[in-house]
Amino acid sequence: MNTVINLVNRSFSSDATGRDWAYTASLGFAALGISYFIATKVSELGFLCAKKKSKGNWVNPEVKKEDAKVVDSCDIEDIGEKKVFCRCWRSALFPYCDGAHNKHNLETGDNVGPLIIGRKKSN
Ligand code: FES
């Protein structure tokens, strides 16, 4: 460590030679390279963590992805006789079912279906 400090001190002294500057510059570039390598590895670790949350593992592949959380509400008065709500997250009419779960089930072997809310039939 003292050698490095002496080299840097000598480079900034009035009698510094081109060779002193070359050594110091080499040392600086080496330090930058090592820093860059470490920063890259650290960011890769972060990237790997984010990769674990890749689209393939998401329940919701594309509905309102710009939102931190997808929350929908529906007033009971608006339900009428029956409303069919999507639970597969593939509906273009989300939160309502448009039948996209059928294609999803065929492609994946999954068995998801909608939530149907309706009024009891009065006798
Ligand atoms: S489209 Fe998603 S449950 Fe029907």
From TrEMBL:
<comment type="similarity">
    <text>Belongs to the CISD protein family. CISD2 subfamily.</text>
</comment>
<dbReference type="InterPro" id="IPR018967">
    <property type="entry name" value="FeS-contain_CDGSH-typ"/>
</dbReference>
<keyword id="KW-0411">Iron-sulfur</keyword>
<dbReference type="InterPro" id="IPR045131">
    <property type="entry name" value="CISD1/2"/>
</dbReference>
<protein>
    <recommendedName>
        <fullName>Iron-binding zinc finger CDGSH type domain-containing protein</fullName>
    </recommendedName>
</protein>
<keyword id="KW-0472">Membrane</keyword>
<keyword id="KW-1133">Transmembrane helix</keyword>
<feature type="transmembrane region" description="Helical">
    <location>
        <begin position="21"/>
        <end position="39"/>
    </location>
</feature>
<feature type="domain" description="Iron-binding zinc finger CDGSH type">
    <location>
        <begin position="69"/>
        <end position="107"/>
    </location>
</feature>
<dbReference type="GO" id="GO:0005741">
    <property type="term" value="C:mitochondrial outer membrane"/>
</dbReference>
<dbReference type="GO" id="GO:0046872">
    <property type="term" value="F:metal ion binding"/>
</dbReference>
<dbReference type="Pfam" id="PF09360">
    <property type="entry name" value="zf-CDGSH"/>
</dbReference>
<keyword id="KW-0001">2Fe-2S</keyword>
<keyword id="KW-0812">Transmembrane</keyword>
<dbReference type="InterPro" id="IPR042216">
    <property type="entry name" value="MitoNEET_CISD"/>
</dbReference>
<dbReference type="GO" id="GO:0010506">
    <property type="term" value="P:regulation of autophagy"/>
</dbReference>
<keyword id="KW-0479">Metal-binding</keyword>
<keyword id="KW-0408">Iron</keyword>
<dbReference type="GO" id="GO:0051537">
    <property type="term" value="F:2 iron, 2 sulfur cluster binding"/>
</dbReference>
